Amino acid sequence: MAQVPTATVIGIDVDVRAAACARRNGVPTAVADLDGPLRPHEGFDIVTAVAPYVPTGELRLLPTDVQRYEPRLALDGGADGLDLVHRVIAAAGRLLRPGGRLLLELGGDQDEALVPALAATGFDLVTPWWDEDGDLRGIAARAPRAG
């Protein structure tokens, strides 16, 4: 927001405490889920999400401090780690303007499942990105264009 002061940013979280933290940092927020009442008139240019993406069976492998201090709600992504991520993709299809961008944080080899899933829902320019150690960190995609 500091880099683009004319940008409109709306934060949505299911965790009341996380939404309160964002508000303290100057981000207008709503406490809702993906099926909530958010329906933009013209659509968003960018939807970004840090949805829970750790597979349930791998939660015990997380560092002790993460297990101790992070709420399970923020970590547990279901059997393959992608339960909520798939819902975010579906919601992004509704919320983004044609040509808008979706940015998701991921891990492991989840790009292998999401690249075809995004393409099947009409997204293109699907681009995973990795950190300097070669670990998957996220994926970007462009929403379907009108017409």
Please count the beta strands (DSSP E, at least 2 residues each).
6
User: In whole angstroms, how far apart are the ends?
Assistant: 32 Å
- Arithmetic mean pLDDT: 85
Poorly predicted ranges: none
- The topology string of helices and strands comes to EHEEHHEHEE
Oligomer category? single chain
What is the gyration radius calculated from CA atoms? 16 Å
Taking the sheet with the most strands, its summary is: 4 strands, mixed
Q: What is the name of the CATH topology of the largest domain?
A: Rossmann fold
Structural class: alpha/beta
Task: Report on this structure.
The chain is an alpha/beta fold and 147 residues long. It folds into two domains: 1-33, no CATH class; 42-142, Vaccinia Virus protein VP39 (Rossmann fold, 3-Layer(aba) Sandwich), CATH 3.40.50. 26% of the residues lie in helices and 24% in strands. The protein contains four helices and six strands. The chain has helices at residues 16-24, 64-69, 83-95, 111-120; strands at 11-13, 29-31, 44-49, 96-105, 124-130, 136-142. The strands form two sheets. It has a four-stranded mixed β-sheet with strand order 3-4-6-5, covered by helices on one side. The radius of gyration is 16 Å and the shape is globular.
